[in-house]
Amino acid sequence: MTSHLFSTSTNGETHPLTYRLREDRGYVDLTEFQQKDGYEALRTTLRDLSPDDLIENMKTANLRGRGGGGFSAGVKWSLTARGDDHPRGYIVCNADEMEPGTFKDRMLMEEIPHLLIEGMILAGYANNARMGYIFLRGEYVLAAERIEQALSEAREAGILGPKVCDSDFDFDIFLHTGAGRYICGEETALINSLEGRRANPRSKPPFPGQSGAWGKPTVVNNVETLCNVPAIALHGGEWYQNLSGGRSDDGGTKIFGVSGRVKRPGLVELPMGVTGAELLDMAGGMRDGLELKTWLPGGGSTGFLLPEHLELPLEFDAIGKAGSRLGTGLMTVVAPNQSVVSLTRNLEEFFARESCGWCTPCRDGLPWSVKLLRAIERGEGEEGDIDMLVSLAHDIGPGKTFCAHAPGAAMPLETAIEHFRHEFEAGIRHQKREAHAEPIPVGSV
């Protein structure tokens, strides 16, 4: 079952990611993709642009990573070791979409995988790579079938393999399905898993751009990030930057989404800088009889925001200043009859389970937080438990662990206590108990 798209457009000038999607939400094959200018950016680039020209276009576009990190893709490419004195490396697509509440990449891979393939070939051309890998979440069975079909079509048409589109550039792509671990969303853990090793993060430096997969220069980009590359290559960086209409310094459009107790959960492509209120309105608003209590702006590893934050532009810097992160840009809404304690416990259980166990604060701190949250949820919390949770969140925060897994888990915990401490206090023994809010069952996030 694919994700509902609650707004569509056939205008490639305003909706470069989604305008080719079919009305029946089916697979866009090679013939249909090329009828809608598919692979035109690749042919034009190979004919008219140098790799450095494409990288400059990417930097001008200010395309920030759509996997959640928000780092400039153009800057990342410019830091990759290239040239005759460096070995040819790899382009790795991070398609291990396991962020709670996130389902945008799945839509792109199931419905229009040729767009991803074109973006990866262009990335390979810019970064002196001759091979690409799509590291796909193993549960995305339909996406795997569609990607393999698209790869076969592209090879048969001479778009992949030796002499791409009759040029002097060789590039091929292979699909690799993962075994289902959230930590593989961290780029160096992904590389270790791709190599057949345990999925632990690597020490940096060296960064993958200098020494990544099998010791070669490697660029790791998210699915949506790579799907933006063809439009930038075809129309230029300034065009892409201007798609936001001056609402944000972050370039382009993004696939935003809403899940939770709204009337029409789903996805939509909108300019960067659209507000949370506009996005919620496009989803039809909250279900009848419900108001918004709180929301996560971009997946389970982002911080809780309040209804008054809905007027903020959905961009990396503005959401960061409000104490959260834009993350993947898929909003999860919470209603008043839902317990923030239960929701937070559910998230922390997920993060504790998905820890690779490589460093002590993450390996031991996350299960400890889950133990405390379970006690509070049952009304059996002890005096000092809330302060201990705050301390644990601080101890696993940025700079305290080997990678960003634990800091991501700390953000919803910290902000939940900051905004809804009274709900946590109600779970402490000897405290005046408030009426129980409806719990959120495990696995519902």
TrEMBL record:
Domain NADH-ubiquinone oxidoreductase 51kDa subunit iron-sulphur binding positions: 341-386
One Pfam short name: NADH_4Fe-4S
Cofactor(s) required for function per UniProt: [4Fe-4S] cluster; FMN
Single annotated GO MF: quinone binding
Positions in coiled-coil regions: none
Keywords: 4Fe-4S, Flavoprotein, FMN, Iron, Iron-sulfur, Metal-binding, NAD, Oxidoreductase, Quinone, Translocase
EC assignment: 7.1.1.-
Database matches in InterPro entries: NADH-UbQ_OxRdtase_51kDa_CS, NADH-UbQ_OxRdtase_suF, Nuo51_FMN-bd, Nuo51_FMN-bd_sf, Nuop51_4Fe4S-bd, Nuop51_4Fe4S-bd_sf, Soluble_ligand-bd
Function noted in UniProt: NDH-1 shuttles electrons from NADH, via FMN and iron-sulfur (Fe-S) centers, to quinones in the respiratory chain.
Family recorded in the similarity comment: Belongs to the complex I 51 kDa subunit family.
Protein name as catalogued: NADH-quinone oxidoreductase subunit F
Organism: Kushneria phyllosphaerae
Lineage of origin: Bacteria, Pseudomonadati, Pseudomonadota, Gammaproteobacteria, Oceanospirillales
